[in-house]
Amino acid sequence: MYKIVQMVPALGWGGAQVFCIQLCNEFAKKDGYEVTLISMYHHDPQKHLPLSMLNEKVKFITLGKKPGIDPSMFLKIYKTLKNIRPDVVHTHLHAGYYCFYTYLRLKYSYKRVHTLHNLAKEDAPPHGRKMFKYFFKRNIIEAVTISEEVHKSALEEYGAYIKTLIPNGSDEVKPTAALQETTQKINSLKKDSHTKVLLNVARITKQKNQKLLLDVMRNLTGENVIAVILGDYVADDKTVYDELIANKPPNVYFLGKVANVSDYYLNADAFVLTSIFEGLPISLLEALSAGVVPVCTPVGGIINIVTKNIGFLSDDISEASFLQALKNYLHSDEAIIQTLKSNGKALYNKEYSMQSCADKYNALYHSA
């Protein structure tokens, strides 16, 4: 039995966590593989992704991490991995540096992989990056970047020890049993059958910069268009959320977190992302799989995907620039829009499916 452990701090509502669940599920489909997902924090159904997203073959373990720095995690992770004795330990986000102690003590031969889900300086704090460099340099951990821009940032931060780039993948968006209900909900928000629906799927944070979307939508009140925002906020970002709600124009709707995000993609005309920085958003890949045209800011791995034959990029993250990008979309000929949708789906099928992504990780896991 080939044993794979994926580890995250917690299954919060974020792209990296969705990616991790989908990657676990893809490996669970393979004969001869045993997949374990470890969450350092206990799972909170009110705050975290539903465990129903996990394939029933995936073992799920929580370690009860306390908020902030929790030194007990080092020994808990060591004991847990020693007991499992995995062939691969694949970490994501801040779980990476909680494994350092285990990697120094657990001496048998096994693969250690860490995926950088964001630009290097945003992916870990200074002390974390310093430790990662030590482990990357000694070939104890193999670093994986998720886009060309993330790879460049990692080379600048860590040097030539960064060698592997595996673009993110995602499951294809498919309708759920709630599609009809969701369609009715979206239709109730539209002015008429010709209203364009812009969809933003992202946590409510300064990074995702929903303020820019609101500012731009305020300038589009004369257009037949609405924006629907799906996402929640963590406690530290409540002030950001409160300010957005207080200054929300009438053509923007905050619908919070929903379990059937796919149905909203299938009711959207365009996918909008106004981030200040990014790695390679899972939400963007999901939008492409659903045939939804992206309109985004030119940050991180987005620029490697949203070319002129796929969607619309603003020149920068200013209000004027993003407003122009949205106008370019809204005033495009329908034939052009249909071509962009078709191109986006084709690109997803060729490069960004979860099956393709998992196959690349599988090859990495088995490499010398």
Low-confidence stretches: none
- Level-1 CATH class name of the largest domain: Alpha Beta
The largest pleated sheet is described as: 7 strands, parallel
Number of strands: 13
Beta-strand content bin: 15-25%
Helix content: 40-55%
Please state the average pLDDT score: 94
Count of the separate structural domains: 2
Notes on the protein architecture:
The protein folds into two domains: about 180 residues, 3-Layer(aba) Sandwich (Rossmann fold), CATH 3.40.50; about 170 residues, Rossmann fold (3-Layer(aba) Sandwich), CATH 3.40.50. α9 packs across α14. The chain is an alpha/beta fold. The strands form two sheets. It has a seven-stranded parallel beta sheet. The protein has a six-stranded parallel beta sheet with strand order 10-9-8-11-12-13, sandwiched between helices. β8, α9 and β9 form a beta-alpha-beta unit.
